Amino acid sequence: MENRPIGVFDSGIGGLTVLKELSVILPNEDLIYFGDTARVPYGTRSKETIIRYSLQCSEFLKSKDVKMIVIACNTASAFALDEVRDAFDIPVVGVIRPGGEAAAKATECGTIGVIGTEGTINSRSYEIEIRKNLPEAKVIGQPCPLFVQLVEEGWADTDVTELVAKKYLLDMKDHEIDTLVLGCTHYPPLRYMIRKVLGDEINLINPALETAVEVKKILEEKNLLTERNSFGEISYYVSDSPEKFRRIGGNLVQMNIKDPKKVDVDI
């Protein structure tokens, strides 16, 4: 048994959707979240910059003596997962493999849509992961950059968001996808609107949930689950604007974010 915390990082607040799933599936574990709010977004950065940022975020979490690092950012998972794994001697989990595996299992027709940032879509990481499990799959990728701002403004269920969703997603409907991967951690609050546009029969894959399931599995296999029987504690750190993080992040995941602290990880 291992009582050290689990470390989670993201480019900003989106990774809180992963943190929330972890807190539900592993309620006794201590969690440390770092949001790199000073340098958000990662989705428009170069691969080299994303790797550098990810290593710095991971180094900060390692300084907190975490037993595992969860890269709760699709863009960082796409570009920096291998580098972070090579740099640290603890388990490192990204969000893309769990999401891709789940999509391959869920589809019946073999045509799968993926939505995310431009960086995630252009990396084709979900497509690669899906085809590892389902080689004949047809994967349709669509960047949806405006979704992030709409979610952060609390507009997930508005007419404006419905118009944007139709603009992004109706082409996927023409491709007759039966499964859609929410390939950005901001997107889970948009599930209702996405179903409204694509239909209730669509399989929506939430990599945040699938990642939490994967984390629990790895901790069990490596005998790293906490021995604590009480609820774990969650600590929050950001690289800029703690109050904005607390307010917007709390609205995103409907959680009370207590006392986020500002730290500098730009080494």
Reported for the largest beta sheet, the result is:
6 strands, parallel
**Biggest sheet: strand arrangement:** 4-3-1-2-9-10
Class of the largest domain, according to the CATH hierarchy?
Alpha Beta
Q: What's the rounded overall pLDDT mean?
A: 95
Task: Provide the domain count.
Answer: 2
- The CATH architecture designation of the largest domain is 3-Layer(aba) Sandwich
Show unreliable segments: none
Please tell me how large the radius of gyration is: 18 Å
Distance between the termini: 33 Å
- Beta-strand residue fraction: 15-25%
Coarse shape: globular
| CATH topology type of the largest domain | Rossmann fold
Helices and strands, in order, run as EHEHEHEHEHHEHHEHEHEHE
Structural class category: alpha/beta
Helix content: 40-55%
Number of strands: 10
**Number of helical segments with 4 or more residues:** 11
Write the layout of secondary structure elements.
Layout: E1 6-10, H1 16-25, E2 31-35, H2 47-63, E3 68-71, H3 74-87, E4 92-94, H4 96-106, E5 111-116, H5 118-123, H6 125-133, E6 138-143, H7 146-152, H8 159-174, E7 179-183, H9 191-198, E8 203-205, H10 207-221, E9 234-238, H11 242-253, E10 261-262
Parallel strand pairs: 1-2, 1-3, 2-9, 3-4, 5-6, 5-7, 7-8, 9-10
